[in-house]
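Blackboard transcription, Thursday session:
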Amino acid sequence: MQDITFTLNGKRITVTVNPLSRLLDVLREEFGLTAVKEGCGEGECGACSVFKNGKLVNSCIVPMGTVQGVDIITLEGIRETEEGKCIIDSFAESGAVQCGFCTPGMVMASAALLRTIPKPDKNQIREALSGNLCRCTGYTMIITGIQLAAKRGEGIW
Amino acid sequence: MVKSYIPKTLIAAVKIRKETGAVPIAGGTDLMVRYRNIAGTLPTFPWPVMYISNLEELKGICKEQNTVIIRAGTELSAVCESSLVHPVLRDAVRQMAAPALRNLGTLAGNICNASPAGDAVCVLYALNAEVELATEKSMRRMLLSEFITGPGKTELKSDELMTAIRIPVLNDNVSFYKKVGTRKANALSKLSCAGLLCKENGIITDMRLAVGAVAPVVVQSAELEKSIQGMNFREFSKYEDHLFQAYAELIVPIDDQRSTAEYRKTVACGLIKEFFKIIKEELA
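(Written on the board underneath:)
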């Protein structure tokens, strides 16, 4: 066990864990941040997506040993922000949420996209979501949701 | 349960490596998947590990004289964003995995994993990349093609850490890269093929060709590449069939979960022919 200090959703915290443990498990078990989902557990589905130092990563393959000193943001950290609300509302209105399991990861991937490309075209959206799997929507409505968020959220990213 | 280490400096990392043989983990995109356990439990690494993704000394891309140096801890996303990196490598890296994985994975990890199906590795062969390996007291460089000795096997010694990838600048006129996989994102390749051509006044000055996932290691032949140096359109057209046969003999794929040997052989030969066609168009 080792003390790992990092910033979680804006708060500096220290947690005593085995550095081998996965960020995904620590976020869910220690902090109750259950928006972070385990889908595939091997970095393919994106349900566990979080920001590590501002970059989208799959928390199921991030060991705690690499989290020392970094900045982690989960969906819980952005859902009350202007950009988080914009994406979430646009998703809801576009029917981009069905079972909801992929949604937190989809929202994180959308935020990562809109921060770098505020007005993405369809291909850029597809590329940005290429690591996030959804078994319900067929993706079309998620793409519509992101287009709506981009239109509505002009200037906030 | 194995021990794990979080070195704060490169010196500390090579020391830990020497004393414990700990295997370095940068992005974890290969190792965390290979040794994953059921949800909520620890991965089952068979050896001690050390986490090196936070070592600033291993980050960054720079150019020194005629060599582009990509430090070992540089994430794939930074490789595809850097204007110092050869466009064919950026293109190959951009087609790897998906954005979140590219924010974690590294070229050095890809190389040390030594999968014959590594896409970037195939391109790095074509670029005649070298790897830089450090111990506590020494530093050595070797050609990537000599470093990787078989599937999952490299020349990395138990006290060494890969610190950088060195890519000689090539002023090529044509670059060619094709990845064949079941889906654009995430899927590992069935095979990949990279080609480069330098020419001057209609004469070949340099040619490179590398094919991945069609043999135990990436297929590349410095000898065959040299054999066409100095040729013009007419000479290359006459020699092309012979060269093709020589390459075809090196393509010895296997059946596995991603593809069949027959498919790989057919497509790899097709891609080589396609590259030769491009060479002729350039020389004509």
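Lecturer's comment: The longest strand of chain B covers residues 191-200.
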